[in-house]
Amino acid sequence: MPIFVMIIKNVNRYFSFELKVKDDSDTVRHLRASNYEYKTRIHQHICTFPLILESGWNVVTLNIIEILKKIYSSNYVETISVQVFILNYFRFMEIVVYEEYISAIEFIQRTN
Questions:
Q1: 108 lies in a domain?
Q2: Hey, which residues does 56 pair with through a beta bridge?
Q3: Per its UniProt entry, which superkingdom is the organism in (predicted)?
Q4: Are 46 and 32 in contact (CB under 8 A)?
Q5: Which residues constitute the domain of residue 77?
Q6: How far apart are alpha carbons 68 and 65 in whole angstroms?
Q7: What is the pLDDT, as a whole number, of residue 40?
Q8: What residues does 84 pair with on adjacent strands?
Q9: Within a 13 Å sphere around the CA of 83, how many CA atoms are in the beta-carbon half?
Q10: Domains held by the chain: number
Q11: 3-state secondary structure of 89
């Protein structure tokens, strides 16, 4: 899938994630975003860039096709893996929950 979306709650701790993707030159590239990086660094196989999170919930969307085109002048083929380096919490859900309902769900879970 060429579009990556992650919903993250900022709890003021270090956080990063890395996508491992393959491009049309059969090269595996690593795209790493983190809230402790201050500038973008581009190398042959890895690109690291800052992730600026506002307080509360954040929706992070990456268009991998555009990123590979701009940085490496190559075309996206596939996503190999996603790694999350986290000192926070995350969970899998059975349904899509929209941002305006997240705090209400958290309140209900805490009171049960």
A1: no
A2: 10
A3: Eukaryota
A4: yes
A5: 3-98
A6: 6
A7: 94
A8: 17
A9: 8
A10: 1
A11: coil
Q: Which residue has the tokens 């305006």?
A: 100
Please say whether the beta carbons of 20 and 4 come within 8 A. no
Question: pLDDT at position 92, please?
Answer: 67
Residue 106 domain-assigned? no
44 phi/psi in degrees, rounded to 5: -60, -40
What pLDDT does residue 101 have? 60
Q: Is residue 110 part of a domain?
A: no
- Amino acid identity of 96? V
Question: 105 lies in a domain?
Answer: no
Tokens of 98: 């929209």
Scan for tokens 């049960």, then name that residue: 112
pLDDT at 57: 87
Rounded CA separation 107/42 (Å): 41
